[in-house]
Amino acid sequence: MSRILILYTGGTIASAGQPLAPMPVALFAEVLRTRGLLPPAAHCELRALDKPLDSASMQPADWGQIARSLLAAWSHFDGFVVLHGTDTLAWTAAALSYLLPGIDKPVVLTGSQYPLAYENSDAPRNFSDALAVAATAQLQEVMVCFAGQVLRGNRAIKRSAQALEAFVSPRCSPLARVEDGVVKLDAQALLPARRAEQALSERRTALLAELVELEKGLAAATVWVLCVHPGFPVAMLQAALSLPAPPAAWLLVCYGSGNAPQDEAFLAALAAAQARGIALLAISQCEHGRVEMMTYQAGSSLAAVGVVGGADLCLPAAQAKLVLLQARGLRGQALLQAMLQPLAGELVV
């Protein structure tokens, strides 16, 4: 039987009180045992971050801490479950898919819409399903397991604040489904198998050393997410450009296939940002489809001032990748070029 590490980071699944807040790991473990959900110690181990968080407080440096916790335990377990709050779960899943290159074991993120202690909570099912997925050796990537669906981590988005089917991956088919505890794979949706020399297990020590330094860069990376909308305040961009060190990357969440207002001041601010070496990336506000900036003049005008289309990247995957690549020292055009190189199935160029 597989040996699974359960890493508790916080979130609704283990929250209690009024208002809700994550409980200490010892109390959470006792609740799991009382409910009969925690497998025997021979088959799993429950660990926690130093301070479990409501995921609304999760920051890029926390992604590094989670990745480091997993890497430190990599050789001792067959699979990993990360218990996480739903608000930023998709960001953490995307970040982990980049921070764990060559992953050769299942890493499954899950949580719940309602606390474990609530009647009819979705927590027991999600927890049990995640354990089953983590024991499925064929699933060698970072995933989100929620409401019976297994989604590629860097393709998932949170779609609902209350519904049990909280997550979807509209631009990528589910990798598997869990029915009555049985994991049913879609083999065609899985990433291609890696060569042995690429496997994370062979490079774990080196990657762990790199992560210690990378965490500093994650904390220092600056990405602005700018949702285009009618009446967009161009003065905000102009104010950013007046700063001694404006954000190094601007992620434009555009209309449709990558469109934005044909406003002279707006385009001038983007052109000035590009001239200062700021990376400008466009993604779509739509759940389905991809950015094709040359389809309309409203998109081609963005391309003319240096905005690069982000293909079919979803928001969490795009923002997390911009942060990670900045942390690795990339800026400007080099950063944008790297954004369009798939790392873990997050986009189709």
From TrEMBL:
The active site is at T12, T86. Residues 223-335 form the Asparaginase/glutaminase C-terminal domain. Residues 3-188 form the L-asparaginase N-terminal domain. InterPro entries: Asp/glu_Ase-like_sf (IPR036152), Asparaginase/glutaminase-like (IPR006034), Asparaginase/glutaminase_AS1 (IPR020827), Asparaginase/glutaminase_AS2 (IPR027475), Asparaginase_C (IPR040919), L-asparaginase_C (IPR027473), L-asparaginase_I (IPR041725), L-asparaginase_N (IPR027474). Gene3D superfamilies: 3.40.50.40, L-asparaginase, N-terminal domain. Coiled coil: none annotated. It holds the Pfam family Asparaginase. Belongs to the asparaginase 1 family. This is Asparaginase.
